[in-house]
């Protein structure tokens, strides 16, 4: 099966944040790529920014973007303790407060998706990989099995 990684994140150039227009252009282009893949029967794998970038836009624009954004078949939500997230982000551009982390989880948990899969980073990695792979295979292979019968 053909797949494409579609990035909704807009890269920073030399530490300078991208303009709002550049961010909007990146997001709209990413949305169009996902729909193109859907039409062609390809798999799109996106990053979390499909949800994060829409959360602070003007309410009318946010609603429009969320309406036209594709609804994922599978949404993997990775849960990690706040202290662990902060430790991993140490020294990076955007450190996150406990409140910001809670806000991000709220965005993910209220996002529309056909199926949400919770991934707990406190569990062994082998168990999480098994959960991810099995969820993906069920989604991809089940329609084939139904067509054969």
Q: What is the ordering of alpha helices and beta strands?
A: EHEHHEHHEH
Which of globular, elongated, flat, extended, rod-shaped describes the shape? globular
Q: By helix and strand content, what is the structural category?
A: alpha/beta
Biggest sheet: strand arrangement: 1-2
Quaternary state of this entry equals single chain
The fraction of residues in strands falls at 5-15%
Integer count of domains: 1
Characterization of this structure:
The chain is α/β, with parallel strands linked by helices and 149 residues long. The protein has one domain. Helix content is 54%, strand content 12%. The chain contains 6 helices and 4 strands; from the N terminus they run βαβααβααβα. It has helices at residues 20-40, 49-52, 59-68, 82-89, 98-110, 125-148, and strands spanning 3-6, 43-46, 75-79, 116-120. The chain has a two-stranded parallel ribbon with strand order 1-2. Strands 3-4 form a two-stranded parallel sheet. The two termini are 21 Å apart. The model has no long low-confidence stretch (mean pLDDT 82).
């Amino acid at each position: 099966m053909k797949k494409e990684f579609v990035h909704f994140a807009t890269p920073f150039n030399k530490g300078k944040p991208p303009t709002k227009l550049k961010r909007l252009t990146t997001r709209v282009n990413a949305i169009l790529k996902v729909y193109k893949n859907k039409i062609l029967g390809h798999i799109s794998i996106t990053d979390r920014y499909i949800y994060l970038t829409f959360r602070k836009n003007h309410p009318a624009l946010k609603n429009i973007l969320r309406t036209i954004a594709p609804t994922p078949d599978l949404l993997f939500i990775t849960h990690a303790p706040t202290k662990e997230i902060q430790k991993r982000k140490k020294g990076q551009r955007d450190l996150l407060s406990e409140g910001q982390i809670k806000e991000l989880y709220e965005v993910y948990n209220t996002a529309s998706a056909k199926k949400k899969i919770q991934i707990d980073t406190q569990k062994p990695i082998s168990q999480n990989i098994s959960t991810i792979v099995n969820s993906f295979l069920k989604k991809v292979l089940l329609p084939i099995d139904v067509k054969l019968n």
